[in-house]
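Lab notebook page, bench 4
Experiment: in silico fold of construct C2
Operator: M.H.
Input chain length: 223 residues
Purpose: comparison with the prior construct
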Amino acid sequence: MSVLNISLEPHVLEILTPLPPLLPPEVATKLRPYISQPLPPTIPYPLLQSISQWSRTPAGEAALHSASLEPQSYSMVALLAGSVTSPERKFPAYIPEKSAEEAAALKTAERKAITSLVNALLSIVGSGFATYWAAGRTGWKNEWQVLCSLFVAAVVAISEAVLYLIWDSRRSDARPRRKLKVSAKKRIEGESEVIDASRLEHGIPRGLRQRTLKTSNSVETVS
């Protein structure tokens, strides 16, 4: 499973730079490559999460206060403010779910299509049988009856196919086209959603997509 990366923003780099002497040795070793030149464009989400969890421990709070640093600056909301999730990934375009009206209209169209096909099949079979029966009444031989009924059935089948194609093309033209509300490119370039702070504190949110996080006094939940 690949590690989720977060873009390393300048303000995050500024508050992470004085941390290595204060952090536990294991966390400090992991952090140093991300605050040293050349600076990488991203930083792993689990690393930021471990730093945030450490800042809420008694030892972490004491170490931060001794260095005149604010523990609140290392909450996940502060660390992720203004950052972009997985900027190196390319996500497909987001297609919104169909509305109730669109789903109902689609089901109605499907029922009409099935009804049209059944009617066409009955017309083909009925016309072929009627021709065979009528030809038999005129005294034709069986082979001529069969050929004549097949010919009529083929003509009816072609006519029904043409009529169905015309009906289907008109239905497609009349159907409103749904637009993509959000594209992956737009999500990467700036359209954002705010992630629930409680989820950020305890793990990676479910269904996390590439997004830009905004600093806000109140954090809205993403459903």
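Observations: Confidence is low (pLDDT under 50) at residues 178-223. The radius of gyration is 34 Å.
Next step: discuss at group meeting.
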